[in-house]
Design goal:
- The chain is built from 14 helices and 21 strands.
- With 502 residues, it is of the alpha/beta class.
- It has 2 domains: 6-121 and 136-261 and 466-500, Aldehyde Dehydrogenase, Chain A, domain 1 (3-Layer(aba) Sandwich); 266-444, Aldehyde Dehydrogenase, Chain A, domain 2 (3-Layer(aba) Sandwich).
- The protein has a 7-stranded mixed β-sheet, with helices on both faces. A 5-stranded parallel β-sheet has the order 9-8-7-10-11, with helices on both faces. The chain has a 3-stranded antiparallel β-sheet with strand order 5-6-21, with no helix packed on it.
- β1 (6-8) and β2 form a beta hairpin.
- Bound molecules: NADP nicotinamide-adenine-dinucleotide phosphate (NAP).
- Residues 150, 152-155, 159, 179, 181-182, 217, 220-221, 235-237, 240, 243-244, 260-262, 297, 335, 386, 388, 414, 459, 473 line the site of NADP nicotinamide-adenine-dinucleotide phosphate.
């Protein structure tokens, strides 16, 4: 049963007004809007809980994470049903995403139990050192404090209320306040019920998790500027992320803002690879482009393709494959509206050629793919922006130099892909040297959609893919975003955090 309220300090509370949720299909729900006062109450509860929660053992936090996973699984069917109505995403995809979400929680549990994340180090005292004795120094990573989390509409489970950011922050020892995404408020409500149930079972302070819901931007802004908030985890659009990032920097005390935003995810098809496998690569690319109606942050939206017969064959295959892709509902009618608006804008760019065009429909999207020359792409800002949905641009290049010029011109990306054969290695090496400065993850002979949850994963990249390129939002090392090093100099053993004692 949906509560439709805010979860603050273990209690479901009303807000000053309500909004009606707008599911893609099925039942709509009345959801309470929050206010700055309610944000203040959630932040105060998180602040109060922080002192104790930060000193809980890794094993008790691991137990909490596993319990959240189990409570989510218990409500699995209800979550999938509501989430399907709210997002239009099919059940099979949502079951898979739930598995990914609970797997992330369990992976963080195992990771913190190992203890390496604390990065402990000890420099013994050297009292006899001449001329200045050395004090005893001990260092370890400690949790920041309360963290605000914003999830994206396209991953209503894995990048939302109990998604990777929440799991990482709770694992680190930071209380969390989630601002629910207005595209799936009932899903956030159900997941929050699961989290509360786990908190009660594990006998934790309920202030460590709050959910506030809102249909506007004021509550989000009150949250990131609240003095008790010490960091923000955000997944969403560049526009939303940039607004909140700027607010974090303008605070009297600026705080880290970990924004995971959009990306073009360029794919470079090198000549020998094109010669050998044009049709095969084209088919895989069309499939990856249309996954989830193109609503993936890792959608390969830019393809760099050599001119010539083989490149033309690639394009013919793309056209044939796209004929079979049907229109599908997008996550919200607003996202569909933006998609068609942006696709229309692309057609006004001089020198643009349609490879495959479809007609605008309300609430749904179907593919639109265009092509242009390297020279045109390099001078057009519009062509270098992400369009969320099944859109892509193919840039035809005449030689290696044009490919490298495009690579050098790229802004920060989540991923970059190279299709290559042995004889392409010389160009591939030159590209790699550029791409490692541009993207968080570089792939060979694969497609970027599908982000493995693993310790070696990097899901992030230079701005605007993310606001902080030295980290990742997926995989166990994402915990480091919510930890800071503290050095304890000559502090008596018994006063040190337990994990730093001998
Ligand atoms: P979004 O519109 O930016 O929404 C994300 C969250 O931010 C929502 O809670 C939204 O609430 C809030 N928000 C947005 N603008 C705001 C503002 N100006 N002030 C205050 N709050 C604001 O993003 P989305 O449409 O849900 O997600 C799609 C985007 O996310 C795509 O660009 C996709 O590439 C990206 N994405 C990135 C990743 C990644 O890992 N890098 C993963 C998934 C998706 P309101 O709607 O109430 O404003």
């Amino acid at each position: 049963m949906i509560k439709g309220k805010h979860l603050i300090d273990g209690t479901w509370v009303d807000g000053p007004s309500t909004f009606q949720s707008t599911p893609v299909q099925g039942t709509s729900h009345i959801i309470h809007n929050a206010s700055s006062n309610l944000v203040g109450e959630a932040a105060q509860a998180a602040h109060n809980a922080y002192q104790n929660y930060a000193f809980t053992s890794s094993s008790s936090r691991a137990q909490l994470l596993r319990s959240i996973a189990s409570e989510i699984n218990k409500r699995g069917q209800e979550i999938s049903t509501i989430c399907e109505q709210e997002t239009g995403l099919p059940q099979a995809r949502l079951i898979g995403e739930r598995g990914r979400t609970t797997n992330q929680l369990e992976q963080f549990a195992t990771y913190i139990e190992k203890g390496d994340y604390l990065q402990r180090s000890v420099d013994q005292a050297l009292p006899e050192r001449d001329p200045i004795p050395r004090p005893e120094l001990r260092k370890m990573m400690r949790p920041f404090g309360p963290v605000a989390i914003f999830g994206a509409s396209n991953f209503p489970l894995a990048f939302s209320t109990a998604g990777g950011d929440t799991a990482a922050a709770l694992a680190a020892g930071c209380p969390v306040i989630v601002k629910g995404h207005p595209a799936h408020p009932a899903t956030s409500d159900l997941i929050s019920q699961a989290i509360l149930s786990a908190i009660i079972k594990c006998d934790m302070d309920p202030g460590i998790f709050s959910l506030v819901q809102d249909s506007g931007v004021k509550v989000a802004q009150a949250l990131v500027t609240h003095p008790h908030i010490t960091a923000v985890g955000f997944t969403g659009s560049l526009q939303g992320g940039k607004t909140l990032f700027d607010l974090c920097n303008q605070r009297p005390v600026p705080i880290p803002f970990y924004g995971e935003m959009g990306s073009l995810n360029p794919v470079f098809v090198l000549p020998e690879s094109l010669d050998k496998s044009a049709a095969k690569i084209a088919k895989g690319w069309v499939e990856s482009l249309n996954l989830g109606v193109g609503q993936f942050c890792t959608k390969p939206g830019l393809l760099i393709l050599p001119e010539g017969n083989k490149g033309d064959e690639f394009i013919s295959t793309v056209q044939q494959q796209l004929e079979d892709v049907s229109a599908n509902l997008m996550l919200t009618s607003g996202i569909a509206e933006s998609y068609w608006h942006d696709v229309e804008k692309i057609q006004t760019v001089p020198g643009i050629k349609a490879i495959f065009q479809s007609k605008a429909q309300a609430a749904s999207a179907s593919p639109n793919v265009f092509s242009t020359t390297a020279a045109q792409w390099l001078q057009s800002d519009i062509l270098q922006e992400e369009i969320f949905g099944p859109y892509a641009i193919i840039v035809r290049t005449t030689d290696q130099e044009e490919m490298l010029a495009i690579a050098n011109h790229l802004q920060g990306q989540l991923t970059a892909t190279i299709f290559l054969e042995d004889t392409d290695h010389e160009t591939a090496l030159k590209l790699l040297q550029v791409l490692e400065q541009k993207a968080g993850r570089i792939l060979a002979n694969g497609y970027p959609t599908g982000v493995e949850v693993a310790e070696s994963m990097v899901h992030g990249g230079p701005y605007p893919a993310s606001t902080f390129m030295a980290t990742t939002s997926v995989g166990s090392t994402a915990i480091q975003r919510f930890l800071k090093p503290v050095c304890y100099q000559n502090i008596p053993q018994s006063l040190l955090p337990q994990e730093l004692q001998d």
